[in-house]
Design goal:
Strand content: 25-35%
CATH class of the largest domain: Alpha Beta
CATH architecture of the largest domain: 2-Layer Sandwich
Structural class: alpha+beta
Radius of gyration: 18 Å
Strand order of the largest sheet: 2-1-6
Order of helices and strands: HEHEEEEE
Number of helices: 2
Number of strands: 6
Length: 117
């Protein structure tokens, strides 16, 4: 379950970027080819953030489907659930991955300053 160590890294980055401000939501973008299970990432976040300044915050995962572009016929298509890296239009295998390898924190939503007090 490498999602636990990924969450730990996300927490470190989020704390540094927030500079002491309270965080309510961390938005992340995860590509289909990254071998990260979004539900497991969300679960691990609850474990990592518990009893820290990030307690009560949550991770929102945007899943990015894998897409390929055929260099022969220029067609772009989603790979789907069972990755096949052959072009569905011409059958060519000279393809490049154009989406699905992403993994990044896209934004932090800060908690309202007046919400707790």
């Amino acid at each position: 379950m490498h999602e636990l160590s990924i969450c730990s890294s996300i927490a470190d980055i989020a704390r540094r970027r927030a500079a002491g401000r309270a965080i309510s939501v961390i938005n992340v973008r995860v590509g289909q080819l990254r071998q990260i299970v979004p539900d497991t990432l969300v679960y691990c976040w609850s474990l990592i953030s518990e009893e820290t300044p990030l307690a009560g915050s949550r991770i929102v995962v945007e899943s990015v489907p894998a897409r390929i572009r055929c260099r022969s016929c220029e067609r772009t298509a989603d790979v789907g659930d069972l990755p096949s890296f052959a072009c569905a239009a011409c059958g060519g295998i000279d393809v490049e991955i154009v989406a699905g390898e992403e993994f990044l924190i896209t934004s932090l939503e800060l908690a309202d300053e007046g919400a707790g007090g």
